[in-house]
Model the fold of this input.
Amino acid sequence: MSERFTGNFTQQEPIPEDAIDAALEVMRSGRLHRYNVAQGELGEAALLEQEFAAITGAKYCLAVASGGYAMGCALRAMGIGAGDTVLTNAFTLAPVPGAIASVGATPIFVGVTEGLVIDLEDLEAKADQASVLMLSHMRGHMCDMEALMAICERHGIRVIEDCAHTMGGSWDGLASGRHGAMACYSTQTYKHANSGEGGLLISDDAELMARAVILSGSYMLYERHAAAPAPEVFEQVKYHTPNVSGRMDNLRAAILRPQLRILDDQVTKWNARHDVLVEGLRGTSGLQVIERPEKEQYVGSSIQFLLLDWSEEKISEVLKRCAHRGVELKWFGGAEPVAFTSRYDSWRYAPSQPMPTTDRILKGIVDMRIPLTFSVEDCALIARIIRAEVGTVFQGS
Done:
């Protein structure tokens, strides 16, 4: 009898008890707004910023309403607006080109490699088309960051890192998000810390962060931030920076702070599950696992593999057969967006040209979320199911 998986691919772990207690304390106080604090008091949002800056090693941190807002805020802080172009990955999720479009700019898509990272040769070829790169560490895959930064420095390109899938990860010992001028993180439910929605923005650049704080809706209350530039930096920009409110509130910050304290342990758990899946799938006929670079300290909160040069019908058959056995897989090759899954040529507000090499890879990408409600044994079972169904369809080709 065929094995079947009965777990839930959208069920996250419960919020930790100390986070629930912290949230209750905020609610009992009634002071949910981040600036509703007594003179000299640091609220939960300010403390979260201080603690996340320390975790990443950044000088400054800003807590905002979502990861998508963080990206738009970073672009605005850099002065990107209508008529500008921004380089970004062709393999990413819709909030990335969406953030670019939200400020009136146009994305210029850069190809993807079989390692599922930005194609540095294509980046070099397109480097003269924009002054900013919104680099998406899509699904937690990091490219050679030294090589990427060398290209960007040579061409005068400023980098904003989208670290929605790499919170807790690093490249050659340097935390994800610390290579670029600014970096954006998400605390949406399916990311590495869960506040339902939320985002964090870090930088070492005082002027950029002062603009971001005012953009987020600080009014003239910027001195109530604990991980922000000195007041004199704000004096230089406050009259010229609009309010585009997107603050995080104290309730969500209170939920997040205890989760950050256990982030390293969570990363260890994710990677144990991810690595069991990779080993279980390695060597499957017709299936290509993604090998991680030695310098990448990844967070395996999801897994991807490639069914390169398979027909759409065969890939659909794999997905259907796995679903029948309880394993939910997502596919990036479909012509129509499905749930969270879409690709560069389906974002019709962002003009694009066909990219044959990238299109071949996107057509073969299969993706799976790894909730920590799954055990290591669950992941071994899932790998056996995928391996069996891919093998069956491949042998029938």
The chain has two domains: 17-261, 263-395.
